[in-house]
Amino acid sequence: HLISEVLKKGRTIQGDLFMVKFLSLSTIKQFNNLIMKQSLFAFLVSKKLDKRAVVRNKIKRRLSEAVRSLLPQVKAGQAVIILAKKEILKASYQDLKRSCLASLQGMTLK
């Protein structure tokens, strides 16, 4: 429910390696003030990218780690979805982290 709402109503930032959709949790009725202290992240990797689950899971783990390292800089109370693009398959971790930082800055960090 939350993911479909963010995909429909959220703002979009296009990056080289992925697309970021985000929406403030305050605009979603079901979330109370307890969750507003943190942001929620979801990582979507399509089967179109690679049919092998091992590869898709590795991409999700790399994205998760890149975001985790930048978490203290992310504004609280956001629902964020990161949708991987085909270019992410050839990117190094440093490129991934750099792209994450640029995209999250577009969301206006703290």
Overall description:
By secondary structure, this protein is α+β, with helices and mostly antiparallel strands. Helix content is 36%, strand content 21%. The chain contains three helices and four strands; from the N terminus they run αβββαβα. It has a four-stranded mixed sheet with strand order 1-2-4-3, sandwiched between helices. Strand 1 and strand 2 (18-24) form a beta hairpin. Helix 2 (53-70) packs across helix 3. It is globular, with a radius of gyration of 14 Å. The mean pLDDT is 88.
Short description:
Helices cover 36% and strands 21% of the residues. By secondary structure, the protein is of the alpha+beta class.
Question: Descriptors for this entry?
Answer:
single chain; 110 residues; alpha+beta; four-stranded mixed sheet
What topology emerges from the helices and strands here?
Blueprint (H helix, E strand, L loop, with lengths): L1 H8 L1 E4 L3 E7 L15 E5 L8 H18 L7 E7 L8 H14 L4
Parallel strand pairs: 3-4
Antiparallel strand pairs: 1-2, 2-4
Helix pairs in contact: 2-3
The rounded distance between the terminal residues' Cα atoms is 27 Å
String of helices and strands: HEEEHEH
Mean pLDDT: 88
Largest sheet: 4 strands, mixed
Strand content: 15-25%
Structural class of the secondary elements? alpha+beta
In spatial order, strands of the major sheet run 1-2-4-3
> Count the helices. How many?
3
Percent in helix: 25-40%
Low-confidence parts: none
Overall, the morphology is globular
Q: Rg, please?
A: 14 Å
The total strand number stands at 4
